[in-house]
Amino acid sequence: MTDLTKLSAAALADKLAAREVSSVEATQAHLDRIAAVDADVHAFLHVNEHALDVAADIDRRRAAGDDLGPLAGVPLAIKDVLVTTDMPSTSGSKILEGYMSPYDATVVSRSRAAGLVPLGKTNMDEFAMGSSTEHSAYGPTRNPWDLTRIPGGSGGGSAAAVAAFEAPLALGSDTGGSIRQPAHVTGTVGIKPTYGGVSRYGAIALASSLDQVGPVTRTVLDAGLLHDVIGGHDPHDSTSLAHDWPSFAAAAREGASGQGLKGLKVGVIRELPDSGFQAGVSESFRAALAAMEAQGAEIVEISAPHFEYGVAAYYLILPAEASSNLAKFDSVRFGLRVDVPGGTVEDVMAKTRDAGFGDEVKRRIILGTYALSAGYYDAYYGSAQKVRTLIQRDFAEAFAQVDVIATPSAPTTAFRLGEKIDDPLQMYLNDVTTIPANLAGVPGISIPSGLAAEDGLPVGIQFLAPAHEDARLYRVGAALEALLVDSWGGPILDRAPALGANGGVR
Ligand code: GLN
Question: What's the whole-model pTM score?
Fold first, then answer.
């Protein structure tokens, strides 16, 4: 029998539908893989002790002839920012250690309704603040390509779980790149949908005007299949769009069948500095563009002069919103409480927040509170919002000329654990290419474009499209993926040295 953990979700779903394998077998194979490798990778904060029961139930329903969705019986890893009734939800923070939610996030309830089998909750930077998963209160996740390196962040756990074949599918959240940058450094696929395209109900808020939930997978088609399950209007989320979305899986299939590149206008940003980008990242990016050009795509230089100010604006807007969102962790309503005998309510609150929040969270709360304070509001928060508007205008002008914009998904390949943890600014600069999409609300995808020559580590190419045009990203992403996988002679994860042919990670 083929190793069930090596199959794409689409291929596994086909075998399940044909009753060649049961969901119990598929789930057990992934639990075995987690048991074998997760002590090294540490992608999971919690493994679902009920996963096999859920799988058995799906198998029973299939045997009874129930009408099951296309992904029924396929295991799913869930980023710990998404609340679940049957597993703790910590958002990577000590302040929520052991917290049990009374309700499921909409993306979780939709996944359950579609018959997906929740495998567990994945590790992340605390409250999704970070680009390396080193800010998790529960210890870092390691990159399956090289265990001394970061898996990206904040959703390093979801990306590593998928890259290490511990799960075929995962859910992530992307506020400034937390789906796309981990995809870039782990050789996986990640999509940040159009703002409002996927419900944020039950996603523990970081910055409400930027947060989006999306799929983390090994193929573009798998991402489309999962997006079809989780997306669409949700009355529980007031920012959820009432839009008639097409099938993203269908768009991916169209792209893979050779439609999608001919006549496509691909914008490349003139102002994006070459400096700061690792040579192998730029080379892989240019090679991917050349491959698209050879298939009839047209590469067009566009101007997006405010793109590079995104990081500065984001690191004012995000802390401002985060400081307000995190005020609810007050020692009374959720999670941790540190008692102060004889102390006031303020003493208890202060001690609890001091003990429960890590350094990066405290740094951003202080920054956000400062940026929002009277006297500084216009100078900082107000200016950042103006930059946000200018970036939105850049996008509008660019998309009048091109169908998609392409950039490298991040400036470097996976850096070493510990390399940037003491230098927040260097960590923040890693987000230069992913942040503008969140500021403008447009969708973005990262797919593997190859390996950097100097270190043999994965590189991602990012495509951005106008709001509502997520399907275009699936079409283009799947078309390029088909070309590249063909030229590599197989999926890029087959070339990860640390993944080991014998099932180990080393
Ligand atoms: N790295 C970015 C940050 O630290 C992105 C976080 C995210 O998308 N959740 O804010």
Answer: 0.97
